[in-house]
Amino acid sequence: MAVDDAEERLDRAFTALGDPVRRALIARLSRGDATVNELAEPFSITKQAVSRHIQVLEAAGLITRSRDGQRRPCHLDPAALEALTSWIDTYRLAVEQRHRRLDAVLDRMKEQER
Predict the structure, then answer these.
(1) If we measure between CA atoms, which residue out of 44, 42, 45, 38 comes closest to residue 74?
(2) CA 35 – CA 60 distance, rounded (Å)
(3) What domain of life is recorded for the organism (predicted)?
(4) Is the pLDDT of residue 1 over 60?
């Protein structure tokens, strides 16, 4: 996979997660697979609107759908979430390392003052 493809996937995923309804759908799917009807239940928006949100999540690669007889359950894609987590962790770890170094410098300064 080219770097541009990976960056495009990250862009689509983070854009998709920018909407509170889509984040709520991801949160619901983290507890298990669900159909569009099941996903739409807690929302005061139409089923069609929920379906459009699902399409955005699917296009972003965050969820997939399968066929189970008449049911078309949605599934969270853990690998896609892992890619997002990995990207975030890269920067989180760098910032934490800088903070630890700063803490060490401040601790040495305090020791020298004593």
Answers:
(1) 38
(2) 18
(3) Bacteria
(4) no
Rg value, the chain, Cα: 20
Give DSSP secondary structure letters for 18-66: TSHHHHHHHHHHTT--B-HHHHHTT-SS-HHHHHHHHHHHHHTTSEEE-
0.85 surpassed by pTM = no
The CATH number of domain 3-113, selected from 3.40.1360.10, 1.10.10.10, 3.40.980.20, 1.10.630.10: 1.10.10.10
The answer on pLDDT for 3 being more than 80 is no
For residue 8, CA distances in Å to 3, 18, 47, 52, 93 come to: 9, 15, 28, 20, 23
Per-residue pLDDT, 106: 87
